[in-house]
Amino acid sequence: MSTSEDRETLQKIDITEMLHLIWTSIKKVWYLFLILPLLLGGLNYFRISSRYDPTYTAEATVSVSMTGLNGDSTNNARTAAQLGKVFPYILTSSALKDIIANDLGRSSIPETIRVTNIANTNFLTIRVTGWNPETTYDVLQSVIKNYPQVAQHVVGRTTVQIIDDGGVPTDTARGTTMRNALVTGATAGLIIAAVLLVIYIITFRTVLTSRDLRSITNISYLGTLPVYKKKKRRKSEQNGINILKKNIQSDYLEAVRVIRTRLDRKMEKGKKVLMVTSSLPGEGKSTVSVNLALSFAMQKKKVVLIDCDLRNPSVKEVLNLTTNEPGLAKFLMGECKLQDTLISYESSGLKLIVLPGSEPDEDEHTELLRSDNMKKLVDKVKEIADIVVLDTPPSAMLADAEMAVPYADLAVYVVLCDYARTSYIQKGIRELSETGVEIAGIVLNAGKESSSSGYSSYGKKSYYA
């Protein structure tokens, strides 16, 4: 492929990703585009209606002719045009308003008077705007009556004939004004919602692709687990995703193998203990832990999987285990023997041993991960296993994951696509790095890219963790 074709492909990908980012962000804050236009439109409508003063415009069309011109249309049109041009100056002198005020017995005329000439005719349109329909109409009639008296001082004697009289006016502007108030408020709401959307995209940026990962951290990228599409099944069959299931997606299975192969290279130098963590709960780290353990076991390696998340143990759920073993916390507290907690998969042809978590526990039990019993446990399983996988708590919000660091040779960091903010991811990786553990790489979970094929389209909402 040529350089220009590569550039065009990258541009298409960038546009697609940008549109997807905008769309996913809109889905998260869609209510702003509904609430803000309705709210601001309603508030603006109420504000305008509470302050609205109705105005009335009385209008009449008249013909103007010069006395002594014998009705010559050309002269009359020229005269009307002259009157239309000089009328603003007549208003400036207040001559017409003084005459109208005297005619109506008023001290002043607050109404607005406008006169326009209909092009190439001797017709004038006179409009009077005021706050009372009757007095506005009276002013219009007085203008028509007294207009010739003022005009004769400018262009000579004229006569005025009414062609069309609109009568006493009604307030026809209210409907338009209120509609404009609604539209203006709603438009302002949409603009504010759009600005907030931009702020959201910038501030609450998440990871969508492996390129996003590379842009925020220099940690190695191990691969992407694709979105796992599942048909509706019984609830008991939906608890977790694991590659032992007969209906496992081929691209998901292959993506796990790709990630395992890349980890194999990093664990060749006698490194046995692999801890798996994430930034936040719900990113699928237990799913990744289980499937990596299963994939290593499928290589005929002896694997021990330990659920170290004492707050929210999930390994049993992912494996669909219904047994009632005491679990890790009970063993660490000395309430049971180690052999009572272990679940063996040797009957399935796999050299896999699972040490599940106990029931979700309170804060006081998280310190058990620092206990001598935990150290002895890890030392013992290292003697009998080729690979030890520790499913540990999230690292960005809690210090629990750091308690497992002394036992780990490598760490895998799981990032769920379009979930945790990049700031949380960077914080979690930074704090994990500061403990001194070597981070083998990042796994992007439920991503649009598949490590098996390098590409997959955006899928529908699916089950992923």
What does this structure look like?
By secondary structure, the protein is an alpha/beta fold. It has three domains: 3-53 and 173-203, no CATH class; 56-165, 2-Layer Sandwich (Alpha-Beta Plaits), CATH 3.30.70; 210-447, P-loop containing nucleotide triphosphate hydrolases (Rossmann fold, 3-Layer(aba) Sandwich). The chain is built from 14 helices and twelve strands. The strands form two sheets. An eight-stranded mixed sheet has the order 5-12-11-6-10-7-9-8, sandwiched between helices. Helix 3 crosses helix 4 (133-151) and helix 7 (250-266) crosses helix 8.
The CATH first-level class of the largest domain comes to Alpha Beta
Strand order within the widest beta sheet: 5-12-11-6-10-7-9-8
User: How widely separated are the two ends?
Assistant: 38 Å
Largest β-sheet summary: 8 strands, mixed
Provide the CATH architecture of the largest domain: 3-Layer(aba) Sandwich
What is the overall number of helices?
14
Q: Classify the secondary structure makeup into a structural class.
A: alpha/beta
CATH superfamily of the largest domain: P-loop containing nucleotide triphosphate hydrolases
Q: Taking all residues together, what is the mean pLDDT?
A: 82
- How many domains? The number is 3
Shape estimate = rod-shaped
Radius of gyration, whole Å = 41 Å
Can you write the helix and strand succession as a string?
HEHHEEHEHHEHEHEHHHEEHEHEHE
Q: Under CATH, the topology of the largest domain is which?
A: Rossmann fold
Helix proportion: 40-55%
Strand content: 15-25%
The tally of beta strands, per DSSP, is: 12
Low-confidence stretches: 9-13, 234-238, 453-465
